[in-house]
Design goal:
4-stranded mixed beta sheet; alpha/beta; TIM Barrel; 8-stranded parallel beta barrel; elongated; disordered C terminus; 44% helix; 412 residues
Length: 412
């Protein structure tokens, strides 16, 4: 039998893809491993590629096969993933997965309360987008196994995403994976949980039991793999029923740190088109914000699909912020900076928040039960919002770390 792995869909050899490769494995009864390599970098890396292939075949328990490779400069983690996919498609069940050593730069952790202003979607079967994704400084990168991957390439995407989690430097961005729906999504977890994924996005959630099923599978896989770091969850609301149950879904697990919405599927579900004004989705977005806030998690807005409409993106982010969202999905790196700028507090917001926090701290110091700023009384929710703004301004470097000292000096 033969198996083929490449970046294009279909049964025949696909188009050559820059920074990727095409691999075909033909199983044999004898003769050992024959490697046939055509590569634009063969002069420099031909021996390394052949050694990697032979190492992979040995790890997977494959003794006799012809392995044909057309390489366009693929990185080692991509070669390893394409090889394993081709071996599996040829009908050989690997004795063990072919895993390259985990890189030190992939081992950082996340936390439930970190900023999630932007999350950049990366198609799970397109590794050419991975190496530079973190350089654009999104708060999170989403390696997508669901809608961006054709059904025939789901197996290849699993191998690539797993290997990317072990190899790619995302420069501190939160490492997210969007799994598939139902049983396929639960099986996706077997591939990714042992490899330091921070957040799992659960698509098309309509019932809290879907979240609980993912939580249970993560706990099982993590225990089997000896994973101690918590894996966080972000359910995606994409239907009328999901929007109706937003709070129940957001509160379904302590692992849930954010709730987001996908409007392409939502508008299709309610039988309307998606418009730039968003009147058709206003109720659902408010449901997500209120459900998330009631459950104590972050509300994250949908993606803005027109990558060329910068002004439209700015308006959309300002609107999202006004509704209570704290983040926005991105489908192109050029959207990240605009989202960050629009989500950040401006000078007036920071100055007001500082005054409120200072008044609150002064009242606490004096043992006063009432907080006031000038002639206005300040309620606890206002103080909490101001504290959040100050914390965000400090984290973004928009407020000097010595801001309290400056205020005290001004009060003398």
């Amino acid at each position: 039998m033969t198996g083929t792995s490449r970046a294009a869909e279909g049964g025949k050899r696909g188009p050559r893809v820059r920074s990727d490769c095409w691999i075909r494995v033909e199983l044999r009864d004898r003769g050992g491993i024959e490697v046939i390599l055509e590569s634009k970098v063969a002069g420099m890396y031909g021996r390394s590629i052949e050694d990697l292939v032979r190492q992979g075949c040995a790890v997977m328990g494959l003794e006799h096969a012809a392995v044909t490779i057309e390489d366009q400069g693929a990185l080692p983690f991509v070669l390893a993933a394409r090889l394993e996919t081709a071996v599996r498609r040829a009908g050989h069940v690997p004795a063990a997965p072919f895993l390259l050593p985990t890189a030190e730069h992939t081992l950082y952790a996340s936390r439930p309360d970190r900023m999630r202003r932007s999350r950049l979607y990366l198609p799970g079967n397109e590794p050419k987008f991975y190496p530079n994704a973190g350089l654009h400084e999104p708060d999170g990168v989403i390696l997508d196994l669901e809608d961006s991957v054709a059904p025939a390439e789901k197996d290849a995407a699993r191998c690539l995403v797993r290997n990317a989690l072990r190899a790619v430097n995302f420069y501190g961005s939160e490492r997210m994976v969007r799994i598939n729906q139902g049983e396929r999504g639960l099986e996706d977890l077997d591939w990714i949980i042992p490899h330091n994924v921070h957040v799992v996005l659960i698509p098309k959630v309509e019932d809290p039991q879907q979240v609980k099923a993912v939580e249970a599978r993560i706990a099982q896989v993590a225990a089997d793999a000896g994973v101690e770091a918590p894996v966080l969850l972000m359910p995606i609301i994409e239907s009328a029923l999901g929007a109706w149950k937003a709070y129940e879904i957001a509160a379904a697990s302590e692992r849930v740190v954010a709730l987001t919405i996908g409007l392409e599927d939502y508008t299709a579900d309610i039988g309307t088109g998606r418009t730039l004004e968003g009147t058709e989705s206003f109720w659902a977005r408010c449901q997500v914000v209120n459900g998330a806030k009631a459950a104590g998690v972050q509300p994250i807005d949908t993606v803005f699909s027109d990558v060329n409409d910068t002004e439209g993106l700015r308006v959309a982010v300002r609107e999202a912020k006004g509704l209570g969202f704290v983040g926005k999905g991105c489908i192109h790196p050029r959207q990240i900076g605009e989202v960050h700028r629009a989500m950040a507090p401006d000078e007036a917001e920071i100055a007001k928040a500082v005054r409120i926090v200072q008044a609150f701290e002064e009242a606490e110091r004096k043992g006063l039960g009432v907080v006031s700023l000038g002639s206005k009384m300040i309620d606890a929710p206002v103080v909490k919002r101001a504290q959040t703004t100050v914390a965000m301004a400090l984290e973004l470097g928009l407020l000097d770390e010595e801001w309290r000292d400056g205020l005290k000096e001004n009060q003398r």
